[in-house]
């Protein structure tokens, strides 16, 4: 009896693949943040027991193949139209959990109108916005969130004012009545990964409670197109991106902790 | 009890039919001359506790319809020419993903902003697909308020049956006119398939994926294109709708659809009464699939196409008659929101008789 107990003790599982995450090889580059974010989503989906209620929308960009990794209903969408597709899906399936997963080009450039108006209508959906300051799938062009002086294949000498400035999506959306919860996190270091998981969970809970629109902006790495190694790219998020895109809860209309930090980064 | 005749506006008739056929998602954007339809849906979808969204753009509206269609709904959007141009992106995705939906185009004059009068200049755009990629829509070209009503109901069924977008190609005149019609109970076509592919949460089944991306050419996208094509060929066999009069022994057959065909009808009646010459008419109702076989089977050698565009449907007429001996096809074209007059059609027919 005693020995059996010991056996259990030695074989205790402390980490496992979330059930919602399929067992396949990743197509993402080494050091890419998508894999971490996919896993966090699946962990939360498992924890909240909503896998069978999930309807996700994968964007145009590297994340388009997300349905290979998520073991729940998923649709593609035209570039940038993800929040519109999410609106249609959620309106006809109000009891399901609808997630729009988008990159920075998808959400903040070609899909600007869709995200602003979905947010303004207070659609009861959850948006996971992966901000890695570059177009990944097309090979490293300037994104709306590309930092000033950052090099890309379309800003070969660095982004200049004439190319526009990095858009702070959370702050932009925070002024809209329709938004309930906006938080910016990062997956560049373990501490922030844990916070990202917490934020994603909060966003899904808001939808489950019918409290409206939430968006979690996740700062992420793109070593391939940043032309860095994995460690260097994590450092880039820490030292450069966080300065322009400060982490934290930007807006929370859910009740006890109500706040709106819109003006924080402008001070 | 037999239903009585009622007076209704074309745009409202479409809305009424949609509500009765169980449309349970509508997204639209204001554009003349179809605003009455969006407004009708705004009121009646809400009264029926069904979702209505005034979208921020046509692009967004059609993509909402993509989502709703993927999510097991009978989804519809409506617009007019410039707006339908914007919708082409979404229509291509809907066709690629094989989702059902109904799209109404109350055509107005073009190109560009053009004007707000009725026209038929979107024939190519509608019948050839319109957006990028190899795909088709089922396109109906009604010519009366009654037909707008009838074909809107049918459109939802065909969309579900074949898993593809179905378009009602009306025009500004049909949308704006008030006319009597006889309402009737919606009767769905039999054996509509269950939507096992829809995204409704994967409870009790494997996950469903709705997609249009097939990255490898071999055994993926080509296969998908061929599969779509098989479906289109099947539809071409199953749907070929038209109306004809004096067509089997007419000396001249006038081919027209929609609003233009209403004028042609009067001309045919005139010749019936006042002339020894027999003039017939052929009116395609399904514009894609074009009723080519029925047209080709006519014995007539002289055809006159009348359309409110610069010669678009005439290409389908010529394709249908291709290779037939001694056949001539003439054209009367009135673009920019003009309607051909009875007199100009009569004159042309007289000349053709010689």
Which descriptors apply to this entry?
heterodimer, A: 267 residues, Rossmann fold, two-stranded antiparallel sheet, 9 helices, B: 354 residues, alpha/beta, 5-stranded mixed sheet, 12 helices, 41% helix, globular
Q: What does this 3D model show about the protein?
A:
The complex is a heterodimer of chains A (267) and B (354). Chain A is built from nine helices and ten strands. In chain A, the strands form two sheets. In chain A, strands 2-1-3-4-8-7-9-10 form an eight-stranded mixed β-sheet, sandwiched between helices. In chain A, strands 5-6 form a two-stranded antiparallel ribbon. Chain A has a single domain, classed as Rossmann fold (3-Layer(aba) Sandwich), CATH 3.40.50. Helices cover 36% and strands 18% of the residues of chain A. Chain A has 267 residues and is α/β, with parallel strands linked by helices. Chain B is of the alpha/beta class. Chain B has two domains: 6-201 and 226-238, Thiamin diphosphate (ThDP)-binding fold, Pyr/PP domains (Rossmann fold); 243-353, Rossmann fold (3-Layer(aba) Sandwich), CATH 3.40.50.920. Chain B is 41% helix and 19% strand. Chain B has twelve helices and 15 strands. In chain B, the strands form three sheets. Chain B has a seven-stranded mixed β-sheet with strand order 3-2-4-5-7-6-13, sandwiched between helices. In chain B, helix 1 (10-20) packs parallel to helix 2 (35-47), helix 1 runs parallel beside helix 6 and helix 9 crosses helix 12 (342-353). Chain B is globular. The model of chain B has no long low-confidence stretch (mean pLDDT 97). Chain A binds chain B through residues 51-55, 57, 64, 67, 70-78, 81, 84-93, 96, 113-114, 116-117, 121, and chain B through 24-25, 27, 51, 53, 55-57, 59-61, 63-73, 75, 89-90, 93, 97, 199-204, 207-213.
